Amino acid sequence: MAETLIDDGTALAIVEGRHGDPFSVLGPHKRDGKWRVTAFVPGADQLWVLTGTSGQATAATHWGQGLFVATLPRKAAYRLRATGHGTTWEFEDPFRFGPVLGELDEYLLGEGTHKRLWQVLGAHVITHEGVQGTHFAVWAPNAERVSVVGDFNIWDGRRHPMRRRGATGVWETFVPDLGEGATYKYELRGPGGQLLPLKADPVGFGSEHPPANASVVRTISGDFHDADWMAARGKRQTVDAPISVYEVHLGSWRRAPGDRMLSYIELAEQLVDYAVDMGFTHIELMPVSEYPFDGSWGYQPVGLFAPTIRHGTPPEFRAFIDAAHKKGLGVLLDWVPGHFPTDAHGLGQFDGTPLYEHADPREGFHNDWNTLIYNYGRNEVQNYLVSNALYWLEEFHIDGLRVDAVASMLYRDYSRKSGEWVPNRDGGRENYEAIAMLKSMNIVAYGESPGVMTVAEESTAFPGVSRPVNHGGLGFGFKWNMGWMNDTLSYIEKDPIHRKYHHHLMTFGLHYAWSENYILPISHDEVVHGKGSMLAKMPGDGDEKFANLRAYYGFMWAHPGKKLLFMGCEFAQGAEWNHNQSLDWHQLENPQHSGMQALVRDLNRAYRDTPALHVNDTRPEGFEWVESNDAEASVYAFVRKGAPGDAMVVALVNMTPVDRRYRVGLPAGGEWAELLNTDAAVYGGGNRGNLGGVTAEEVQCHGRPWSAVVTLPPLSAVYLKQGGLA
């Protein structure tokens, strides 16, 4: 009788989905000297175990409610055949397969030191014990039971419960005959047996199209054709290299007919070709890790390992990166390890406990963004984040990561009032655990992926952000210069008649310019939330607005520091950015807008092709003031220097609408060619300039033995290059 083959209490726990160790019951087991196969097949009335090449059938005894037990004469590989509701079907029994994860994986997972977490967790299409299928593994140490559910098992958590892997907190199972494109989530019973909301895979490689949010089995392996780029990229991403970044939101850069978002394949041609033509060295993608809400722009990610399906699949994303590299263009990703959203299918209370986040909202909740904060002090969480950074660098050949909102991670009291935060062990405000995670991320990124660059968006004076970890720093390659951005925008927005009273907003950045490896950022944050577009910030009317912006860009590209410009700013889009629609490309029909685009293109090329403008972006020997105190005229003049023997460049900026004949001291005699003039007609200016250049005279000025009288058009920047333009 079936009652003697399985304990009733055990059987009931299986059919009710309560059993915490289903692999100890289901599948083949030797009991009382006999091999028995126990199978749970809801909806089946009869079940047979098929063994041997001929498929010899052994009838199973039905305990009830879809639970069957069969006794075999010997241990053997088998399949199952079931009948029910007038249908017969055959299938592999997932419970006959052994574990996939090995002892070393278990050890590293338990220790929280598995650098390549994505290779063992998540959903992987594999051949296991001679059968094709998908291996699932997920970390949920406090769950009483974890199941994988999807269309393949009618979202029934009783059908594919997973195997607990010892003390690691990891659960795994192999689902035979399941492959690419299958949708799935995890069903978890938390402590006390409560059934939790279905969870997306924290290490899933794909997701459904929003607003649907199940994970999707995706293959991430594939070929690249960028060996030349990868071998040489290191020298393109150092402090000596010209780095000019085009920041892009893929969903609104340009739209396809019908207002459809462009695919990765379309972007591989259109965006890549455009950025290359414009002379940018890199594009920076606002977050592409899967996110549920379009309005977050990706900064509230749920699927950290999944390129968003909004533009295509992981292989198509890889093709996009490959296309950029083949055209000599680097790709940076915005990476968001600072917080995650509270969506029910996400990481919050993942196994019924605050697993990824802090339990205390004073440590684990961002009031500004209504998001949860990672518990960086937990080894497995730190490992999850550091491994995710390495994942993008290794699997997709990403050239660098720009880390979002670093200041919010560094300080426990970030945007919190007294009493709303928990001090560190020394009573201070620094978040030691987050600092340790960032250091670890940088060590792993630079150590495992030669030639990459990491960039911090960090708005405070935290010391050593871009200093190596072994020299006491956080280990980033570069840091956004938020102070420079705020000061210079504050200046340029003022009416020129008042600028003389704020003259040193433009010079103050040079007091700390060498304290970090800086990038000068005009990012998306400056053209949203009512701040207006870059053009709208400018004082004056019509042509004067454009002239102000041209002069500002001229100052920016001559100033020490790498460059970053948000999409649309390069052609002076009139309206502030709207993530729901394309940029206003039609404005390029206006000569002022197309002129601004031409200026940015030429600024990029001058910056890239002129060593004096980039080699010493982060070193004081690359910069000398000629005139920093002429507030009355609102004129700035400075020298940029490259390596010894490189032709020097003198930049002059006139921030008033007054045409000036200005004598300026020069660092050497001879000819000085006009390398660039933002007032050129081709840029939409008045075409006032220096007829190709000036000749230095032995007339002392600005403490220098050489000088020349230079025409400075109203609201303009002029670059003079030592010698000729060759």
TrEMBL record:
It catalyses: Transfers a segment of a (1->4)-alpha-D-glucan chain to a primary hydroxy group in a similar glucan chain. The keyword Transferase applies. Keywords: Carbohydrate metabolism, Glycogen biosynthesis, Glycogen metabolism, Glycosyltransferase, Transferase. Pathway: Glycan biosynthesis; glycogen biosynthesis. Its EC number is 2.4.1.18. One of its GO terms (molecular function) is 1,4-alpha-glucan branching enzyme activity. Residues 247-601 form the Glycosyl hydrolase family 13 catalytic domain. Signal peptide: none annotated. It comes from the Bacteria. The active site is at D404 (nucleophile), E457 (proton donor). Monomer. Belongs to the glycosyl hydrolase 13 family. GlgB subfamily. HAMAP family: GlgB (MF_00685). NCBIfam families: branching_enzym, PRK05402.1, PRK12313.1. Catalyzes the formation of the alpha-1,6-glucosidic linkages in glycogen by scission of a 1,4-alpha-linked oligosaccharide from growing alpha-1,4-glucan chains and the subsequent attachment of the oligosaccharide to the alpha-1,6 position. This is 1,4-alpha-glucan branching enzyme GlgB.
